[in-house]
Amino acid sequence: xxxxxxxxxxxxxxxxxxxxxxxxxxxxxxxxxxxxxxxxxxxxxxxxxxxxxxxxxxxxxxxxxxxxxxxxxxxxxxxxxxxxxxxxxxxxxxxxxxxxxxxxxxxxxxxxxxxxxxxxxxxxxxxxxxxxxxxxxxxxxxxxxxxxxxxxxxxxxxxxxxxxxxxxxxxxxxxxxxxxxxxxxxxxxxxxxxxxxxxxxxxxxxxxxxxxxxxxxxxxxxxxxxxxxxxxxxxxxxxxxxxxxxxxxxxxxxxxxxxxxx
Amino acid sequence: xxxxxxxxxxxxxxxxxxxxxxxxxxxxxxxxxxxxxxxxxxxxxxxxxxxxxxxxxxxxxxxxxxxxxxxxxxxxxxxxxxxxxxxxxxxxxxxxxxxxxxxxxxxxxxxxxxxxxxxxxxxxxxxxxxxxxxxxxxxxxxxxxxxxxxxxxxxxxxxxxxxxxxxxxxxxxxxxxxxxxxxxxxxxxxxxxxxxxxxxxxxxxxxxxxxxxxxxxxxxxxxxxxxxxxxxxxxxxxxxxxxxxxxxxxxxxxxxxxxxxxxxxxxxxxxxxxxxxxxxxxxxxxxxxxxxxxxxxxxxxxxxxx
Lengths: 262, 306
Description:
heterodimer; A: 262 residues; mainly alpha; MetI-like fold; 10 helices; B: 306 residues; 11 helices
């Protein structure tokens, strides 16, 4: 039954996770060094490493990554703040929910990237447009999860609050918000993931200035597979780091508020 | 022995009503007249405000107000037509798209792409998830690599795939399939991890074979979460479709948007966005309907995956 009760990965099998990637890199290296394909797209791992080194030392990489991250963070902060406000309003006020809820649910169905053309006409191609787009990307999951969390506070807790004669304000601050925190965190966490995705998308579609997405597009346009691979690795690493950061923060907060993770 | 108990034991001294009398013949009561069930007030005091009609009216208030504002704004020329075309133009563009058959042409191209991509991606995803869910060995080998690759979003793969496959149909299929594959795989795997422990214990207590546990316990309880994964996968596939078509295509709804943008025909852009949103919404509603039926009787989870 060991296969069905998968809770902890056994330490002795740790090496197994490395088999596939190492073999993939080995095959890649072999393919490029033996010249299995004459296509210029088959670049060697060394070439990618050299390109990466050039990018990093020439400062191009830092310019691109800092531009991307600045956008990412500003869009994330704006979107999350607005999302928390809207989510709280939707979750706490019945009237507001009935007024705005259906419209919001329709609005969130519209494919995120479909907004790009409208945003580009309204806000141009610069950083303002990108930040607007990113905020939009971060806003939606925060609103959905905040509202959900506030809505699904256990009735038992609310009854206790009523028995103790809590005022509405006390109920919100003392009972509903803490109970909704895990869900709110999920929303913020998703917002972080989405806003990074949207950063890349915004840089592809609103081409101007620098950014890691622009680096990728440039590599693709000049048939420089090494640059493309380097960009992909960077995107993956940044996404992973953001992920990790969010998880850590979430755990810290949960411990701070004494909430057991769901 | 106290006086009280001695007294209680003496039947002659008990009060007369406590001694059983012979039963009187049963007198039937006349049938109760048929009366409607008594109405009990269950509504909250402000129940008047909570019926469907007012709900619908309130829900339409905001969109109608925005539409009105948009209409008046366009009429009065608060914004130029290039920036915000009047609603009538958008409606006209939509009607033109319908009439000329362009809408059908592009929508069918998009739907075909998303269907093929989604089918390929989700069947691969279910297979991968099943393999990893059923065999710990496979999971040990594949999951870390899978998790590492998942960190790169679909958009990150795009330039890479563009170089490998060119701007043809394969590019779209591959990217859409990839977009659908990730959530489907993860949800399938999670479904296997989250089989209720109690059920497994019952199975073990009954001496189920491994095969029986899989077919009778694990798979039935995994159906609903896997379906959630499919729904999520479709959402992602639809999202990626738009991006892929915006960036590299010569037909499809995303192309319509990109085309309108290039010509600064915002009415066309908006009409296309409306169509994209409507189709996405309809398909999502379909999935939601099936999902709700599958989830019937299960405790609802709070929060959503996405």
